Amino acid sequence: MRRPVRPVPPTPEETEQRALLLRLMSLLLQYPDAGLTAARPVLTAAVGALPPSPAAGHLAGFTAWFAGQEPDALERHYVETFDLRRRSGLHLTYYLHGDTRRRGMALLTLAQRYRAAGWDTDGGELPDHLPVVLEFAALTGLGKGEAPLRQHRRGIELIHRALTDADSPYRHVLAALIALLPPPTEADLRAVAELAAEGPPDEDVGLDPYGAGGFAPPGSFVPPGQAPPTLVPPSAAHRQEDRR
After folding, report:
1. How many domains does the chain have?
2. Going by fewer Cβ within 10 Å, which terminus of the chain is more open, N or C?
3. 3-state secondary structure 30-56
């Protein structure tokens, strides 16, 4: 009887490149404030220096557009795409639980996961905001760090579909992320189709107990002895107030 083939663990160089890809995705999905738009040449150069891979190719497709847009146009596109459309919002637990009590518990569990890894939360986006989840994955690693991404595989696929339908260049960043995840199963594809047709579960329950205190955006996390802080986006509420 043949023994099952064990997957070959990634080399240190592969692990480092994967973390860099995730960190770049986290940055590129943040609100394009003045700090992020000023960093576009650095981000474009970092993407261009990546070893060839499907994920790197998708990110290059995004930065080609991102680098050439006016700052006001970038801000407007981001708000219209992620803050004003539920189908392409970046809060992952919404796709799994909708506006139900289960979502509140999922947010709390995710925040506890971050704290257990040594991360401090100090206001900002909710813990299921995709840039936050990507930053956690980049700093914590393939196993526990990427577990939330695997758990929310279907929501990520649905966001990608919505961005593709809207012809948003941000679809390239989601495509890069999908290229790093395990292939979807038939059950995943059926669930995504059902979500696209019917939407997530619905229940008239607020999330204030879990959102009032806020959770840290990517750059505010403090993992033990890890990387320097990244650019910090304002919350969605502040973004829309600033645009009035």
Report:
1. 1
2. N
3. CCCCHHHHHCHHHHHHHHHCCCCCHHH
Structure letter (DSSP) for residue 146: T
| Residue 226 confidence (pLDDT) | 34
The model's pLDDT over 188-207, given as tens digits with 9 standing for 90+, comes to 778 777 777 766 666 544 44
* 217 located within any domain: no
Q: Pick from 24, 33, 19, 235: which is nearest to 138 by CA? A: 19
Q: Are 28 and 90 in contact (CB under 8 A)?
A: no
pLDDT tens across 219-240, in order?
333 333 333 334 444 455 555 5
Residue 182 located in a structural domain:
yes
Whether 167 maps to a domain, the answer reads yes
Q: How many CA atoms lie within 13 A of 176 on its CB side?
A: 30
Cα maximum dimension of the chain: 68
Give the C-alpha separation, 102 to 96, whole Å.
Answer: 9
Write down how long the chain is: 244
Please compute the mean of the pLDDT values over residues 125-136 and round it to a whole number: 93
Q: C-alpha angle with apex 141: 137 to 147, nearest 5 degrees?
A: 60
Look at residue 159 and tell me whether its pLDDT is greater than 50.
yes
Token pair recorded at residue 223: 């993992």
Given a cut of 50, is residue 85 above it in pLDDT? yes
Range of the domain at 109: 12-198
Contact between 93 and 128 (Cβ < 8 Å): yes
